[in-house]
Amino acid sequence: MEGLYDDGKEDGGGDDISASGPALIEPYDDGAIINGMLSKNSFADEGQQTENETVVRETAEDQEVDTADQFEEVGIADNGDFLDVDLKKPNQMAISSFSLLTTFFTITVVHFFIHAHSATHWQDVQVLKQLKSTITPSSIPPGSCIDSWDFTLDPCDNLFSDKFTCGFRCDAVSNSSTSQVTELALDSAGYSGSLSAVDWALPYLQNLDFSNNFFTGPIPVSFSRLTRLNRLALSHNSLTGSVPASLGSLASLEEMYLDNNMLTGQIPLSLNGLMNLKRLEIQGNKLNGDFPDLSRLGSLNFLDASDNAISGELPATLPPSLIELTARNNQIEGNIPATMANLAFLQVMDLSHNKLSGSVPAGLFTHPSLEQLTLSYNRFGLVQVPGNSGLTSQLISVDLSNNEIRGFLPGFMGLMPRLSALSLENNKFSGFIPTQYVLKVLESGTGQGVAQFERLLLGGNYLFGPIPGRFLELKEGSVRVRLGDNCLYRCPVRLFFCEGGVQKSLMECRAFGPMIP
C-alpha cells in the first residue's frame, strides 16, 4: 500500500479508521479504498479514534482539502491510478496497524473455518450423551474420562481440554463439515451400567474399548451398526447373555476381545463371516456346546477359548492361518485330529485340562513351526513316535504331564534339537531314564542350535533302576530336574534332582508291573 498519506496530512472529516478484513484494494472515484480497508469515507465510527488517526492528527488537524488534493496526497490520480510517492513515517505506522488488523482478521477467519469443520456430528453427540447417561453415576469417579464430559461444549472441538479430557477420538470426514467419533476407549475406572441402552449409531467408529470395568447386561445387538469397527474390546467386565450372532456382520473387524465376562451359550457359527478377523479371545466365560468349525476365518491368527465349558470333539478343520490355539480348561473330548499337522503356521497349542484321549499324534513332533505343545491334564495313553525321530522338530517346550501315558519314556525327545523344557510327570511311564535325556541335561550338544535341557520333570511315574551316575555332577540351580515319586534305586530327596516326593514303596512298584525288579 503506497501513497496513502503525504506529509502527514489527513483528509477532512477527522473520523476513525475502520478495518473489516483482508481483501483486494481498489480505488473509487471519490478517493475511497473499497472493501472497508482505508478510505476517506471509512474514517467514521461513532466518534471513536484509533492509533492511526492519532498519528495523522499530530501533523494535520482540522485541515480541509478538496477532492483533487486528496487524490494527490494519498497517491491516487484523478483517473484512479496509483502514483509513486514516498511514504512518510505516519503512513508507515498506519500501514503497520493495518497489517496487524489484516493478520488478526485472517486468523479469525481460519479459526472460524477450522471450528466449523471440526464440530461433532449431531448423531455422534447423541451417542456420547446416551453413553454417559447410562453409566451408573456412583461408578463415575472424580477425574475420570466420563466425569469430565461436559456437553455444554462441542466434544470434538474440546477434546483433551478440561471438559473432555479423554475417552474418545475424532477425525475429519471427507466431503463433510463435521468431525466423527472414530474411537471410544474408556479408562479402567470401574464404570458400571448396561450398554444396551445406547443407540450405537457411530458409522465411523473403528475402535471400541471398554475393558476392565463393570459393565453388565448383554452385548448390544446394535453393535452390528458399527460397520467400520476394526477392534472390539470388552474384556474383564460382567457382561451376560450369549455372543450375538449379529457380530458376524462386522466385516471390517480384526480383533475381538470378549474374555473374562459371564457370557453363556454356544459360540455362534455366524462368526465365520468375520473374514478379516485376526484375533479372537473368548476365554474366561461360561460358553458351552461343541467347539465350532471356524475354518472359514482365513485370517485368524490367535484363538483363545480357555476356561469355558466347551464340549464335544475338536473340529476336523481349523483356520489354516492359526499361529496360536489355546482352549485349556474345557470339556473337549476325543482325539486330536491328524489334520492339526496341516496348520502350517501354528506355533503354540495349549489344550490342557480337557478330556482328550487316544494317542498324541506323531505329526506334532515333526511340525515345521510348532514351538510350544501343552497337552497336560488329559487322558492320553500313548505317544506316537515320528519317523525321523523328531530331528526336524521346532518344539522348544513339551508338557504331557498328568495323563495316562504308559510305556517307556520316548527317547526321541532327547534328540529334538531345540527342546529345552520337557514335562512327563504324573503318568505311567516305566523303565530306565534314557541316555539321550542324560546327555541333553549335561551337554548343550555338538551341533549348532542344539539346546540343552533346562527343565526335565519326570516325577510321579514308575521309572526304575539307579539314578544316572552323571547326574551327580549337576550343581543345584544349573538345571531343574525332578525325579521324585518313582521307583528309582537310591534317589533320596536330599539330592536336589530327586525332589518332588520320596520314591514309591517296593510293593507299589511291583504291583504296577512285573518288569520292575
Automatic annotation (TrEMBL):
Question: Which parts of the sequence are annotated with region: Disordered?
Answer: 1-22, 42-64
Entry-linked InterPro entries: Leu-rich_rpt (IPR001611), Leu-rich_rpt_typical-subtyp (IPR003591), LRR_dom_sf (IPR032675), RLP29 (IPR053213)
UniProt keywords (A-Z) are:
Leucine-rich repeat, Repeat
Q: Which organism is it from?
A: Rehmannia glutinosa
Output the SMART domains linked to this UniProt entry. Answer: LRR_TYP
A UniProt-annotated Pfam family: LRR_8
Q: Where is the composition biased (Basic and acidic residues)?
A: 1-12
Descriptive protein name: Uncharacterized protein
This protein's record includes keyword ATP-binding: no
Polar residues biased stretches: 42-53
